[in-house]
Automatic annotation (TrEMBL):
Species: Elliptochloris bilobata
Highest taxon of the lineage: Eukaryota
Name of the protein in question: Methyltransferase-like protein
InterPro entries xrefs: METTL2/6/8-like (IPR026113), SAM-dependent_MTases_sf (IPR029063)
Molecular functions per Gene Ontology: RNA methyltransferase activity; S-adenosylmethionine-dependent methyltransferase activity
Statement: the UniProt record of this protein carries the keyword Cytoplasm: no
Entry's Gene Ontology BP terms: methylation
Keyword Hydrolase applies: no
Keywords: Methyltransferase, Transferase
Family: Belongs to the methyltransferase superfamily. METL family.
Length: 313
C-alpha cells in the first residue's frame, strides 16, 4: 500500500470545467437555503433555532439576484491561524493522504507541463504536496519552491517528495506564512515562472488575502503567471455547513478554528488586480462528480484564474 496518495496513479487524461452552468446551482442552492430558513423559523419563538434563522436571513445572497442584505457580516476571530493549521496536519493529515493529488492541474495550466524551458514554480500553501508534487513528477525538468505556514505540512511535503523519488536539488521546502506582513519574504526576487495558489487563499480571513497576493507578485518574474483554483460560491461543501457555522454569504468556519471562503470570479478579479496582476482568465469551473458506491451525484463549484505579473513591473 502506498503511504502517500497518488503514488502510482497516472496523470489525468481529461480536464472538466463546464459540466453545468453556475446559474443552475445558484437557483437550486437559494431554494434550499430558503427551505432551511423556513424550517428554522417554524420552531418555537425565542429558541436557538429561531436565533439562527434570524442570523441566516441577514446573510446576503449572490450579487445580481435582486435580494436585499448586501452587507457582509464581520469576520470573527477564531484564534491563531498557524496553530489551527498545524493542529489540522498533525491530527487529520499525519498520513499525508487527506487530500488527493491534483493531477488535473497540468491540464488546467499547460505552462506547468512546458519543457523548453521547464518552469520554475513557487507554491504558497503547499500542504503535504497534493498540488506541487504531481507537477514535479510529470515534468522532470521543473524546479520548485514549496512554502507553508505549518512546519508539520512542510515535513510531510519533504517526506512525500522523497517517497516519490524526487531529487533534493529540484526543490526547496520552506516554513513561511505568505500572509504575514511583518516578517521577511524569502520569496522576494525568486523570479519564478509560475506561482500556484490552489485552495489556499480561501483558507485566509479576507483582510489577509491582499498580503498573500502581494507575496505571490513578489515571487514571480515580470511576465510570470499566478495560477489560482479554489472553492466557488454554492459548492456542495458549502451547502453542507450547518447554519451555526456560516459567518457570511461566502464564509464558513470549522470546529477546529479554520475558515473557508467561497469565491466568485468578480471578487477574485478585484482582489488579484488590486495586488498588481493583469487577469488573463477568471471564471467558474463547474464539475459533476459521481460517487458510484453511494449512487450520489455532486455538483462541485470552483473558481479558476490565470493572472500575469506585467512585464513592466
Amino acid at each position: 500500500m502506498e503511504r502517500f496518495v497518488g503514488g502510482r496513479a497516472p496523470a489525468a487524461s481529461e480536464y472538466h470545467c463546464r459540466d453545468f452552468e453556475w446559474e443552475e446551482v445558484r437557483r437550486d442552492a437559494e431554494a434550499a437555503l430558503e427551505a432551511e430558513l423556513a424550517v428554522l423559523r417554524s420552531d418555537s419563538p425565542g429558541s436557538d433555532k429561531v436565533e439562527l434563522a434570524n442570523r441566516h436571513q441577514a446573510l446576503p445572497l449572490a450579487s445580481g439576484t435582486g435580494r436585499r442584505g448586501r452587507g457582509v457580516a464581520p469576520v470573527q476571530p477564531w484564534g491563531d491561524d498557524a496553530a489551527n493549521w498545524e493542529r489540522f496536519h498533525l491530527r487529520c493529515n499525519k498520513s499525508a493522504r487527506f487530500y488527493k493529488e491534483r493531477r488535473y492541474l497540468l491540464l488546467e495550466f499547460p505552462a506547468l507541463a512546458r519543457t523548453d524551458p521547464s518552469p520554475r514554480v513557487v507554491e504558497l500553501g503547499c500542504g503535504a504536496g497534493s498540488s506541487l508534487l504531481p507537477v514535479l513528477k510529470a515534468n522532470p525538468g521543473a524546479r520548485a519552491i514549496a512554502t507553508d505556514l505549518s512546519p508539520a505540512a512542510v515535513d510531510m511535503f519533504r517526506s512525500a517528495a522523497a517517497s516519490a523519488g524526487i531529487c533534493l536539488s529540484r526543490y526547496e521546502a520552506l516554513v513561511f506564512d505568505a500572509a504575514d506582513s511583518l516578517g521577511l519574504n524569502p520569496l522576494d526576487g525568486a523570479n519564478a515562472d509560475c506561482c500556484l495558489l490552489v485552495f489556499t487563499l480561501g483558507a485566509l480571513r479576507e483582510e489577509a488575502m491582499p498580503r498573500m497576493l502581494r507575496s505571490a507578485f513578489q515571487a514571480l518574474r515580470p511576465g510570470g503567471l499566478l495560477m489560482f483554483r479554489d472553492h466557488g460560491l454554492y459548492d456542495v461543501t458549502q451547502l453542507r455547513w450547518p447554519p451555526a457555522q456560516r459567518l457570511a454569504r461566502n464564509l464558513c468556519h470549522r470546529q477546529d478554528g479554520t475558515t473557508a471562503y467561497f469565491f466568485e470570479p468578480d471578487r477574485l478579479r478585484q482582489l488579484v488586480e488590486g495586488a498588481g496582476f493583469v487577469a488573463r482568465e477568471c471564471e467558474w469551473a463547474c464539475t459533476r462528480l459521481l460517487n458510484r458506491k453511494r449512487g450520489l451525484e455532486m455538483r462541485r463549484v470552483f473558481v479558476h484564474g490565470l493572472f500575469e505579473r506585467p512585464l513592466e513591473s
